[in-house]
């Protein structure tokens, strides 16, 4: 079974979410939890961006031993030097250099010709390789780049010493089919491609970041990049927990393994949410509050008889104690009876009917009936009137 590396960028691209600002200690807490989660690489920050980021990256690189720590750098010598100062004490120092390759970025942002971009990329990768054992190079905005230009520049940066090539969907524009085809094209046309690991980095502007990452894996990517809870620039990055669980649950389709310890997912998600202040939406796949909640009578009845009727992921797989039967207006007798038992009440059939009717009346007034509401109904029903 092929291995897929998990590259976590919660502390770099994730921290670029509007309104998020992690201090050094918060970053270190998250880094330790990411290590427990089993990521292969963590991008701890962008050392040249600020003194605080430099200090945080340095401390994380010197503390974390269980995985490789990397830092982002523009294709500038001073960024690479700064990254080296921050990362040199790490267990496996690696640098992540990016340079845009799309006409739109080369013309308007970099104001460089394609030949100048190739020259800069090659020069900076060779320079970084003098220090770093592992150099990752990203073709920023790869999905809006000319495919043959991508093939050309990738061949050159591999010759210059890059060992990981990342093809980001920087603006979340691509579809799974297109993204997969880009990886296939690069794999089939870059002559020295077998010397490197190909990486996928997807943004979620059109809600396709996870699907695009899976399509990349099926077409040759052996590293996926993402963040916890999918936080990140604009609409965020691919959610690592969703990719990890999809690969596990759909083993029939995806014959790949990762080092992720899936049981650590919920703890990691909670920590990132608390420290970044980015709330996880209730309906968020894998870690949302409702991801294992059942409200309708038909679903509750099915799950109580056999959980796999409506649950494809077991809560314990991702570190959640159990599923939840939510009592609301769609709920039926089966879940209600279970809840009564759970509270330790023994009601005869007519009392049970009476209590169920009171509960149904309450659902006309409240969206969700809480345990306290239910307890009040049950004690009230038991009391002889
Ligand atoms: O989305 C992107 O292109 C990036 C690069 C820095 C890799 O985050
Ligand atoms: Zn990004």
TrEMBL record:
Quaternary context: Homodimer.
Cofactor(s) listed in the protein's UniProt record: Mn(2+)
Protein EC: 2.3.3.13
UniProt similarity note: Belongs to the alpha-IPM synthase/homocitrate synthase family. LeuA type 1 subfamily.
EC category name: transferase
Pathway(s) the chain acts in: Amino-acid biosynthesis; L-leucine biosynthesis; L-leucine from 3-methyl-2-oxobutanoate: step 1/4
Keywords, ordered alphabetically: Acyltransferase, Amino-acid biosynthesis, Branched-chain amino acid biosynthesis, Cytoplasm, Leucine biosynthesis, Manganese, Metal-binding, Transferase
Residues that, per the record, bind Mn(2+): 13, 201, 203, 237
Protein's job: Catalyzes the condensation of the acetyl group of acetyl-CoA with 3-methyl-2-oxobutanoate (2-ketoisovalerate) to form 3-carboxy-3-hydroxy-4-methylpentanoate (2-isopropylmalate).
Reaction(s) catalysed (UniProt annotation): 3-methyl-2-oxobutanoate + acetyl-CoA + H2O = (2S)-2-isopropylmalate + CoA + H(+)
Location of the Pyruvate carboxyltransferase domain: 4-266
Signal peptide (UniProt feature, chain positions): none
GO molecular function, one term: manganese ion binding
Species, as recorded: Halobacillus salinus
Biological process per Gene Ontology, one example term: L-leucine biosynthetic process
Name recorded for this polypeptide: 2-isopropylmalate synthase
GO cellular component assignments: cytoplasm
